[in-house]
Write a structure and sequence with these properties.
With about 230 residues, this protein is α/β, with parallel strands linked by helices. It is built from eleven helices and six strands. The termini are far apart.
């Protein structure tokens, strides 16, 4: 619901790793009707923590931040705090930024040249259950939807009786992630990751991570990069 409908301003958290930009956005929002800034974060981890602490209505999320980027922070916020909406506010409007953010659960997407009125409209739109997209982003989405989809490859079934989660862990090992990084990505404990690794090693007869990488490529679960 919008601020006008609830009788109170929309409670907003701002997440941006650049101090000058973040403070400038906070200052701008303080001048806008119907918006109350309740917190500011310097990276995605701080944004997730502030949402858990403050339960804001909306997060204005930058994408490229240290420790935890905006896409991953959006995914975690939408999974754990569905009452908080995310509007991306970023310099980038390329496909590599736009579509992962929307797939992660962002309901709005603005570039940083957006004016105050546009930000207010986006916040009100997402709180009303609609999308808060800038005109340029809407055009990009329409262009993408009008393009024919490339033929999709047949999905590869997990080999050797691996579960879906064990296969996911295997693929992350093949990407070079450590146990701690896998745990953060899957939102589980390191002990749980070790259990999955022990299980997949036992099922496949693998002895170490190097063998696991070769196994993943050999089974067609990972494709070599195309030069």
């Amino acid at each position: 619901m919008t601020a006008e409908e609830t009788g109170r301003p929309a409670r907003v958290v701002v997440a941006d790793d650049q101090t000058v930009v973040r403070e400038g956005i906070v200052m701008l929002l303080g001048l806008l009707p119907g918006i109350e800034v309740v917190g500011a974060a310097g990276d995605g981890e701080e944004a997730v923590a502030l949402v858990a602490e403050l339960a804001p209505d909306v997060v204005l999320m930058d994408l490229r931040m240290p420790r935890c980027d905006g896409v991953e922070a959006t995914r975690r916020i939408r999974a754990d705090h569905p009452g908080t909406q995310v509007v991306v506010l970023t310099t980038y409007a390329d496909d590599e930024s736009l579509f992962p953010a929307l797939k992660a659960g962002a309901r709005g997407y603005l570039t940083k040249d957006a004016g105050g009125d546009e930000i207010v409209r986006a916040v009100e739109s997402v709180l009303s259950g609609n999308a808060g997209l800038s005109p340029s982003v809407q055009r990009r989405l329409l262009e993408r939807l009008s393009q024919p989809e490339p033929p999709s490859a047949e999905p590869v079934a997990p080999p050797d009786g691996l579960t879906a989660r064990e296969t996911e862990v295997l693929l992350l090992i093949a990407e070079g992630l450590s146990n701690q990084e896998i745990a953060r990505k899957l939102h589980v404990s390191t002990a749980t990751v070790k259990t999955h690794i022990n299980n997949l090693f036992a099922k496949t007869g693998l002895k170490d991570r190097a063998q696991a990488v070769r196994y993943a490529y050999g089974k067609g679960l990972v494709r070599p990069p195309v030069n």
